[in-house]
Write a structure and sequence with these properties.
alpha/beta, Rossmann fold, 3 domains, 18 strands, binds pyridoxal-5'-phosphate
Length: about 700
């Protein structure tokens, strides 16, 4: 029996591949846009709810059946391809995949198990592995209440709202062992064992395993252990981390997966390396130190922030209480295990840092940009007494973004026409991108105007709704023709979301210059427990109400993947003004670049290695002053001058047909010099070549 249209839709939505295929999302929109929006753009829910008769009827009016067939065929081709980059270049990984552990994964807005940059990077990482065919399994936790949503109240204070989401409408299945039985793992926590079932999602060619402790054998509290991402105190946190690291490794084994490489994405999952060693001690009777050495030699660790508070530190008593079972399994005194996570092992009683545990064991450790690699060496030099800075074994691999997740369909089309229909398969080849220079300025500008119009409608719709809810007077809103600069990121002091408000009169003059007006659009959330961040949000919102600014500055609530995508695609430029060197990499600007926007940034994170003088704009020259207030004042001054003297004049310098050739030239240069480097394929190639392959060699020599 041939499949019905509905069955085909269901088959397509079962793999999260559709999340980066805009042409598939448009099939759903074309079938029934109202239903699609009512179901929060969730294709699986849509495929289940759609009335088959209605579907058949609508399908006759458009070329829907052919489009569905094509999508299904392409998905099958993707899953069965035998000639991938991974097979040619990472074939040695063979049947021992990279186990990629992370506390959060940002794949799509419908699966809210991410909070921000770290999770979105993890999502882009496994999508990149899928693109290239690098053998990989993702391992994370399933937070059944997800992360909180940002809703602002009448005093502009961020409320953190838990909005339960319907797991049944996500393509998650119970992971089964080779006998077809659902896999269940247990993790010893103080006084009891906590059990978790394992759900799996398919992200293209990559399996993503998600542990869920809602098991009848657990106490009611333990069933809620992973209710929310970053939702508890440090006791909940260490227990979540044990569930992830220890339980995650056990889940792999139970599924018959023997990882060849362990990639710890941030310190939260570092316990996995102890569990791997424990397994070897128990099953192969290895000496514990030797087992740790072997597990470590196949481990890659990526550290993500130079901000001290960004690294978990567990108080000694808490850590001891929780690490007993692992120590026992390792046949080591618990004090020895604790010492592995202390900055100075001899300081008994000092806190335990999972980052330190990972740094001590991983064969390869990397920061996420060249500058961050350098800063991380300084930060952790003390772990290697007697080693000079350049001997500290921390390198770097600069982050990249998954192009098809973040790019507008129109830009993809533009590149298909001018670079080649298969450009996405060769995105990391620098030679390909020279062709961008040949695209007619008018065509680049036209495409950007289409994207911008859509984004400006989104901004004005969202702002109007929020103003109405808060009882604020209606306003005219942003001028859709004016230069529009976006700023979207977590609100924390070092990112300085309020820097541009340093001098209000100066800002007023810039924004409201009748010859060359400027719009600013802000978005961003604070961690639910961070009142300093919430204070910053309130501050920015108060500035937005100033009569001088309210038609020029907008704030969009609830920054997430959906909101982000809307902003990245349509804004003319993106503002990034952290206190150097605290932004380890930053990736939002890369997403803007892919959509023909320009990056305006402090020379920090990726921008310190990416800016060439003409492919965007630099705020200041990278100098850092010891006094923070002085630094902020200098950077604000540099930002104002840059806007006044370079950015605005370039944007408004038009020819008789209204095209700003100088601006478009810079856009083309930005795409030509940045797109091939700062994407997920290049990032994965770097990890595979420089870390995964050498790490897997050592593991395969010694693997049981
Ligand atoms: C890309 C992205 C981030 C991370 O961007 P940074 O520049 O590192 O702050 C955070 N949140 C969302 C929604 C994103 O899309």
């Amino acid at each position: 029996m041939p499949l019905t249209l509905q069955q085909k839709l269901l088959a397509i939505t079962r793999n999260l591949w559709w999340t980066w295929r805009p042409e598939i999302r448009s099939i759903f929109r074309d079938i029934d846009i109202d239903l699609y929006h009512r179901l929060y753009q969730n294709p699986l829910a849509f495929a289940r709810e759609i009335d088959p008769a209605h579907l058949e009827h609508r399908a006759q009016e458009m070329d829907v059946p052919a489009r569905i067939d094509r999508a299904l065929r392409q998905l099958r081709e993707h899953l069965t391809a035998t000639t991938t980059w991974g097979m040619t270049h990472a074939g040695a990984l063979g049947s021992r995949p990279v186990a990629y552990f992370c506390m959060e994964f940002g794949i799509h807005e419908s699966l809210p198990i991410y909070s921000g940059g770290l999770g979105i990077l993890a999502g882009d990482h496994i999508k990149g592995a899928s693109n290239l065919g690098v053998p990989m399994v993702g391992v994370g936790l399933l937070y059944h209440q997800g992360y909180t949503n940002q809703v602002l109240d009448g005093s502009f204070w961020q409320q953190d709202v838990v909005e339960p989401y319907d797991l049944r409408n996500l393509p998650l299945e119970l992971a089964r062992d080779k006998h077809g039985n659902p896999v269940r793992v247990g993790v010893e926590l103080p006084g009891r064992t906590v059990y978790a079932r394992v759900l799996e999602a398919f992200v293209g060619r990559v399996r993503l395993l998600l542990l869920d402790p809602r098991d009848d054998a657990n106490s009611p509290e333990d069933r809620e252990l992973a209710a929310r991402l970053y939702g508890g105190d440090s006791r909940v946190r260490i227990q979540q981390e044990l569930l992830l690291g220890v339980g995650g490794y056990r889940a792999l084994r139970a599924l018959g997966i023997t990882p060849g490489v362990l990639h710890l994405n941030e310190g939260h999952c570092a316990f996995a390396v102890l569990e791997w060693a424990r397994h070897r001690v128990q099953h192969d009777n290895l000496d514990p130190r030797f087992a740790l050495q072997i597990a470590g030699s196949a481990t890659v660790f990526t550290t993500h922030t130079p901000v001290e508070a960004g690294h978990d530190r567990f108080e000694a008593g808490l850590a001891e209480e929780h690490l007993h079972p692992l120590a026992e399994g390792l046949r080591m005194p618990v004090q020895d295990v604790l010492a592995m996570g202390r900055v100075r092992p001899e300081d008994s009683g000092a806190p335990f840092l999972p980052t330190v545990l990972a740094l001590r064991h991983a064969r390869f450790t990397n920061g996420v940009s060249a500058l961050h690699g350098k800063i991380s060496k300084q930060m952790w030099q003390g772990l290697w007494p007697g080693k000079s800075l350049h001997e500290v074994p921390i390198g770097h691999i600069t982050n990249g973004v998954h192009a098809s997740t973040w790019m507008a369909q129109e830009v993809n089309q533009l590149f298909r026409t001018h670079i080649g229909v298969k450009w996405l398969d060769s995105i990391a080849r620098p030679d390909l991108w020279g062709k961008v220079e040949d695209i007619d300025d008018a065509e680049v500008w036209e495409v950007k105007q289409v994207l911008k119009a859509r984004t400006m409608r989104f901004i004005s719709g969202r702002s109007a709704k929020m103003r109405e809810r808060l009882g604020l007077p209606a306003i005219e809103g942003l001028d859709p023709e004016a230069l529009t600069i976006g700023f979207g990121r977590r609100f924390v002091p070092y990112k300085r979301p309020d820097l541009v408000f340093h001098d209000l009169d100066r800002l007023d003059a810039i924004l409201n210059n009748p010859e060359r007006p400027l719009n600013l659009v802000f978005a961003g959330r604070a961690h639910p427990a961070d009142s300093t961040g919430k204070e910053l949000i309130r501050r920015v919102l108060q500035f937005c109400q100033d009569p001088r600014f309210r038609d020029r500055v907008a704030f969009i609530e609830n920054y997430n993947i959906h909101v982000g995508r809307q902003l990245y695609q349509g804004v003319d430029a993106w503002l990034n003004n952290p206190r150097r060197p605290l932004e380890a990499c930053g990736t939002s600007g890369m997403k803007v670049v892919l959509n023909g926007g320009l990056h305006i940034s402090i020379l920090d994170g990726w921008w310190a290695e990416a800016f060439d003088g003409e492919n965007g704009f630099a705020i200041g020259n990278g100098e850092v002053h010891a006094d923070q207030a002085t630094q902020d004042a200098r950077d604000a001054e540099a930002l104002y001058r840059l806007l006044e003297e370079e950015v605005l004049p370039l944007y408004y310098d038009r020819n008789d047909t209204g095209i700003p050739h100088g601006w478009v030239r810079r856009v083309k240069r930005s795409i030509r010099t940045l797109a091939w480097r700062f994407n997920a394929d290049r990032m994965l190639m770097d990890y595979a070549t420089n870390c995964y392959l050498p790490a897997s060699m050592s593991s395969s020599c010694q693997m049981s």
